[in-house]
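Hello again, I could really use a second opinion on something today. I've been staring at a protein lately and its backbone has me curious. Can you walk me through what the tokens say about the fold? Take your time with it, there's no hurry, and the full record follows here:
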Amino acid sequence: MAIISTSTHHEKYTPTNIFIGGLGYVGSRLASTLHEVYPHAYISGTVRSAERRDGLLMASSSSTSCIDNVHVLDIDNEYIGLDTNGLHDLLNADTIIQTIAPLADFDTDPLLAFHSEQLLRELSGNDKKTLKYVIYISSTGVYGNHNGDWVSEEEDDNDVLLCTDTKSLARIKAEKDWGKLEQHHIHQLTEVDVKDTENHISIPTRVDHFRCGGIYGPGRGPLFSSSLESLLTNDVQSEEDEDTTDINTPIKYVNRILVDDICSAVISGMNGSRPIYSGGRAYNCVDDDPAPRRDVVAEARRLLSSIRGETPTAAAASSTTASSGNTIGRRRRMSRGTGNKRCKNTRLKEEYGWEPIAPTYREGLVSLLDEV
């Protein structure tokens, strides 16, 4: 990632037209948060089915709606991408946030699979640029296995991106493909100085890759298991299977992020600025304390026990009794297979001034107790 000018920063802006690829768990939360922060912004996004679209549009008829328009991104049936109205919203957005994972069918980003040419065409010419900022929601899975060592977003990604699984490799490709938007617009400006002056010379579109850890929040995570007994018998047992206590085997660390901290990171990016890079910039969107899953499950058990008026010991004993006996045929949770590493979040904090709501899983779980 070449730096074009260490003294040239992207212009700060107030988003007025936001397009969210994928109004799922993260995308919907982002839409709600962005509506609160930027109440006058037009917010649109995509879903995968007409049924989901109709449901969101019906909800959007209320005065408190946070989504102005919903479009079907057809990646299942006709493979035609966005319709005319959806493409209009995409190409007129000043901010694009892409949350959709790469498609197995294309091994690439779905929005770019259908509409990369139109996006690149929109960025051609100084007087045509509407798009200010792109955030691609990626994954820390791209780092692969580092045997529990700390990793950060290095300039030479070849040293740290050690993943071998197809899904994570596709994430890396999607990061690079989105980064081409920034690279392309810089190329369009080679005839002029890349700077913000009274003449309003165009500033290249900024592209950031937010590599998120395991996402939890309302309705998602150990607090929201069907019962405390299920939490103990399924998660703790499989965790003990996965995280061996053999002193020769490293602890299996998991990087995680509260969904509302993804939202706050996105807003920090919108409010921030950074030097111009060719190909975008990666940021680890994780909390401060990567920890084994069983530690998180144990804390969730303690919190659930406290609000039920039980003691953790009694709850554990109850679960042990319930799970004793024949375990033949019990389905064991499959490993997520994203490797063992601890991801640093220093760059996001230093460059965009981001401070997580939940610095560790402990604060995160406490913040969700009212949702249980």
